[in-house]
Structure prediction request, 494 residues.
Amino acid sequence: MYRKLFSEILTKNAGFSRSYYTNRTNKVTLYSKISPLGDPSTSVVPELEDWVQKGKKVRVAELQRIIRDLRKRKRFSQALEVSDWMSKKGVCIFSPVEHAVQLDLIGRVRGFVSAESYFSNLKEQDKTEKTYGALLNCYVRQCQTDKSLSHLEKMKEMGFLSSALTYNDIMCLYVNLGQHEKVPNVLAEMKENKVSPDNFSYRICINSYGVRSDIEGMEKVLREMESQPHIVMDWNTYAVVANLYIKAGLTHKAADALKNSEERLEKKDATGYNHLISLYASFGKTDEVLRLWDQAKTACKRYINRDYIVILKSLVKLGELEEAEKKLKEWESSENCYDFRIPITLIDGYIEKGLLDKAETLLEGLMGEGKATSPNSWGALAAKYLEKGETKKAFKHMKVALSPKVKKGWKPNSEIIPRILSWLGDKASVEEVEAFVEPLKAVIPANRHMYHALLKAYIREGRDISGLLEGMKTEKIGEDKETKNILAMRQSSV
Prediction:
């Protein structure tokens, strides 16, 4: 349950999931109605109610499958809605397993306080190792150290420390707190209590040594893991080891670990291929990246959008922009749905390398086709043009970043905006300055730089500035030396 939270330790792309919905028979099922509702803020309850109102059967197994799928896709709010609906409608009597799932979802969506309340209202027979473990998981996820350790003691008293999962949670707690030195002690305690560590237990411990640059300690735990008869070595562990060797500059050992990881990769494990592609990119091995990319297509039969994001990021990191362009064209000709993160990956690579014309052409092409783009990329492009002294182009692209056509939830670079505003105050018309300042105020609070640009433009055109000065007072923006110098321009122009 908690393994997902630990995923960043494995590699930066560890959150990737290959789940996607296909309905080859075109048969309408409850799953086929809910699965495509990708926006986590979209409620699934209307679909559930509509299904029942139409007199269709509601199967517990299908609802459980929907919850599993939504959790896998990190659509926790929707999964909780389904679970809540099952409980309220009395679709089935919740066992401790269903209660544990509900607890986990409540903790993720509403926080540990709500999870505590749910747990305390459970019947005694439902307070099992699974529900206790789910509450511990909630505490750990939110780094509630005291509550986690206190709850662990209660679990000890109840005799609920029979599985590796509980110890893994505590190790993850220390990882999240940056207290990696405490992890090996938890592994030792697990073994003392006759609880066999699983692959994840060893992987956390291996990583705890690696992040402290204790390669000898890491290798000792790896050898112990390899010697355990109940452990089947997996690609994930060797990928973690390879990553740590790469960071330590131990290239030969990293190459061996990557080879061991690949040998244990299941044929159709696209997530595993993505991990290894990313690691080989970190290792600077372009040939291996392309080899694994081709191999993944043979094994998995198709690439989905997240696979393209991984390969493009890897090729951009390697500086292989021509190869990245080929992959972008391949994606464009695929039947995959549009995802702005894919072209943006290459665009950001162009900007980083100073290929501003290429970035501009690709961005403008997407906009021309009515496709979504990222304000971050427009803002980064503006910043690069500003560095080159091309303020007019910087202004043009920052305008696009602030426009309603571009995805929101972004704030512009605080160092760039004052420079553009200063240039506008000196060069632009009042209408141009106002057209820039208005959307800017929607993403950052009104400030002196905005008023200075407006004041300069108004004064140049001989317009009345009393409204602007009143606006500064209302916004509680006091005059400084520059304000006084700008106002002096008005007197000299009379």
Q: What stands out?
A: The chain is about 65% helix and 0% strand. The two ends are 73 Å apart (CA to CA).
